[in-house]
Design a protein that fits this description.
Layout (H helix, E strand, L loop, with lengths): L1 H21 L2 H36 L6 H25 L5 H8 L2 H12 L2 E3 L1 H21 L6 H27 L1 H22 L10 H29 L1 H5 L5 H13 L5 H18 L3 E3 L3 H4 L1
Helix pairs in contact: 1-9, 2-3, 2-8, 2-9, 2-11, 3-7, 3-8, 4-11, 5-7, 6-12, 7-8, 7-9, 8-9
């Protein structure tokens, strides 16, 4: 019992580390995409990450995933390696980081929803109430900013939320049997070969003269956002439960706004702080809410 409690708490801590790392993704993307473009930033980060991952896989002498595991890895690759990076990179060409951060706050709800179908988790009523309160707080924040009608970039972000939510649930489930870093590592190796040509076609000599902050941002996206952050995140979900750990993501938009303020000079208002407090309280409540588990179809077979 004590061991399980420690495992869950450590899982939540790893999830928090992952969220902090992810929170720098949009600010870094906003900086990098200005100099390297959507394709290089969205897909090029995976190509660079694949070099690091290939070395790790060889050194660790990892065996190839099974056919069943490969199907799950394909879902992770489509979401975390292809869909989310390219959709957010494109959206960040048209939207401020604070705008994107708010819409990505719906990610925990999407992750918890997919966890019910893919990982057999059944969150309690208290969990859903906490999650809905956090979502409503985020929506109130969006209305306060006065975004108006949805743009194509908004739809891209909402699509990114759905596809990444499925990827998170699938990866968190698979991490229990394959290992956390192995999940994202193999997903990167699956996607990277398809990205080499399009990235190569969009490389230009002018990119070599990009400022140092653009290069630092791109390296961060490739090494941390695309690989190391996922290692912490999938480990956290495997240990603490997908639905429960996903609640920590409600902190992500406010961390993004904080980092945007530090690195991009975007302002932080008093209303933002009030909403952040409400969200944090909801996360604490949701963290302590019971989440039961039923056997999935694959486990029954």
């Amino acid at each position: 019992m004590v061991q399980n409690e420690f495992r869950e708490k450590f899982g939540l801590l790893l999830g928090l580390v992952g969220v902090i790392c992810f929170s720098l993704t949009l600010p870094a993307t906003s900086i990098a995409v200005e100099y390297f473009g959507t394709t290089v930033v969205g897909l090029g980060r995976t190509v660079v990450a694949a070099i690091l991952v290939a070395v790790v896989l060889v050194v660790q002498k990892e065996k190839l995933p099974s056919r069943r595991q490969f199907k799950s890895l394909l879902v992770v690759a489509i979401g975390a390696v292809l869909g989310f990076p390219i959709l957010t990179s494109w959206a960040m060409e048209f939207l401020p980081v604070s705008h994107g951060a708010v819409e990505l706050a719906l990610l925990p709800l999407a992750t918890a929803g997919f966890a019910m179908f893919r990982a057999g988790e059944v969150p309690s009523l208290k969990f859903w109430v906490s999650s809905i309160i956090a979502s409503l707080a985020v929506i109130a924040y969006a209305l306060h900013l006065g975004f108006g009608q949805l743009q194509y970039a908004d739809l891209a972000l909402l699509g990114a939320v759905m596809i990444l939510g499925l990827s998170y649930a699938e990866g968190g489930k698979l991490a229990k049997e394959l290992g956390s870093w192995q999940v994202i590592a193999w997903a990167i190796m699956i996607g990277a070969p398809f990205f080499v040509v399009p990235v190569g076609l969009h490389l230009t000599i002018e990119m070599l003269h990009a400022p140092i902050q653009a290069w630092i941002s791109f390296i961060y996206l490739a090494v941390v956002s695309q690989f190391l952050a996922y290692v912490a995140w999938y480990s956290g979900m495997a240990m603490g439960g997908i639905a429960r750990v996903s609640q920590i993501q409600y902190l992500q938009p406010f961390l993004m706004i904080l980092f945007a303020s530090v690195f991009l000079d975007e302002s932080i208002t008093f209303f933002t702080l009030v909403i952040a407090v409400i969200v944090i309280c909801s996360v604490i409540s949701g963290k302590n809410a019971p989440v039961s588990r039923k056997r999935t179809v694959s486990e029954k077979n």
